Amino acid sequence: MFHRSERLLLRPIWPEDWQAVYGGIADEGVVRNLARAPWPYSKQDARDFASRVPAPNEPRFLITTACNGHVVGCIGLDAHVSDSSGREYPGAVEIGYWIARQHWGKGFATEAGRAVLSIAEALGYPRVYGSHFLDNPASGTVLRKLGFEPTGRVIERHSCGRGEAAMTAEYALELATASGNSDSKAA
């Protein structure tokens, strides 16, 4: 699956992309804001990530600039949404993303997020969850720009990059109310 927005092309991650993934994520400032990526992030971690085949209903994308194909980051959906007590949220997905440090503050996370929300809606998901570590308020800003609302829950979540649990703020978006968020086209 591919998705084109105004400035970005979201495309599948292929095994040969491992070096581009590594170049963007092998930064402690990026990894510490993620739940599943380890720190230090190794070349083998990048190879393994780029080689994984996602489930059809859980797309993940390499975020590239549409004009020259430079890698900006990654974004995707995970259908295994649960809280710290293990309670599952059936029929929901969680959005996850990272942006390489040199591309922070340019609106790429918001633009890619709109594209992925459009895809989530096309896949029939009624609700999307998102969260951010409390010491990463920029990610909360992105979620709010995308139309997510705080659930009022602050939960502890393990961060592989930090090597410990940290508090996260949880957000949710009902896609029926988000239909005006996407101004791009999926292919």
TrEMBL record:
Pfam families: Acetyltransf_3 (PF13302). GO terms for molecular function: acyltransferase activity, transferring groups other than amino-acyl groups. InterPro entries: Acyl_CoA_acyltransferase, GNAT_dom, N-acetyltransferase. Keywords: Acyltransferase, Transferase. Residues 8-174 form the N-acetyltransferase domain. Belongs to the acetyltransferase family. RimJ subfamily. This is GNAT family acetyltransferase. It comes from Erythrobacter longus.
